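Troubleshooting: if your tokenizer reports a length mismatch, compare your output against this known-good record of 448 residues.
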Amino acid sequence: MAETDITRQLAERAAHLQFEDIDEDAKAVARQCLLDWFGVTLAGARESCTAIVAEDAEDQGGNPQATLVGRGIRLASRQAALVNGTASHAHDYDDVNMALSGHATVAVAGGLLALAERRDASGRDLLTAFVAGYETACRIGALVNPSHYAMGFHATATAGAFGAAAACGRLLGLDAESMARAFGIAGTMAAGLKSQFGTDCKPFHAGRATEAGLQAATMAQRGFTSRGDILDCAQGFAETHASDFRADAATGPAPGGGFHVRNNLFKYHAACYLTHAGIECGRKLRDEHGLSPADIASVRLRVEKGADRVCNIPEPSTGLEIKFSLRMTAAFAIAGVDTAGMTNYDAANAADPALCALRDAIEVELVEGRPTTWSELVVATTDGRTVTVEHDSGIPAADVAAQGERIAHKFRMLAEPVIGDNRAGALREAILALESQPSVAQLMQLAA
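Known-good structure output:
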């Protein structure tokens, strides 16, 4: 690894990206990512984990430089990044990218928006910087996965910190040498463990990543020193955090060509993404086969074995734990519980006798050789039949415009109860015309 130059290559890529380099599909999906971010962040703004982080940040005080989304106050930019980043992941309803094996948007957007508001940046500059950061997070995830994730690191928190540094560095206009130093600073702060899934620390990972990236970029701009080869060097990020070093995956084209952001996967269920295929299978049982819980004798839920260490809480007792329970989320879907409805993930449903009985009828089978985004349900019915359904939630949408309509609907559902119909509509239109916005501060004011 010491003879490679991945750090330099990725730093140059991020530092030199221009708005004109980004194809129209990638720009459209990037706008959708930001619209989705505002929706999930508004919804997560008043969750208890966000409130605690916000109260702690307010207690520290500081210059009022950036807005707390959905809370109507301003704090120092790093504090705002931490709070907004935590809020954006509070419901685990934000988008994912399988190259990262995590959540690129929430790792990048919070710090970038705080910096952009502080500097009164334009929407065009914001979009360019966001794509630069998103790409970096995915490329570093691809560099060290799958072993990085399998070892127990939460890639949103680790590779995501590099993505945030790249985005903020691009907005600051760092050259490649300074960008590489920003990566070095981010790399020594990157942290987050999968053992914390199902607790407040998981959304806190997103907040810490986006704050760390912002600090890394601003410190590098000020001349703070670090290794400029943090991804490659002995005892660097890759060597200490993974047994894989996939240089070609980090520097080569994204799957399908173009930009990694084009392969973004949006969530339409408010739970861990590795539960989504099982949820879709449960919906198929109801919608395509007409089965209800009363028709089911037993269920075998087949998933890739990696899910066992991510979202296989067998008997969740809280709403947050339900989001990481293959059995309970599948039971929700089979029973017709709205998996998009965030209020359904609560302790009452975790203890509901009918849902628990259905949950207990589901056996999870771990298999090899399948994508982590794939699931299959094999159902034995009470009348002696066997019904099998499968789904892969890891395939990006072919129709970007249709995807945009679904994201706009989701945004309205999440944002309108918090800021009202008129402001939500104005915010949506401003994001969808982001390149023409003279100031990001206007977006943040609408989201306050």
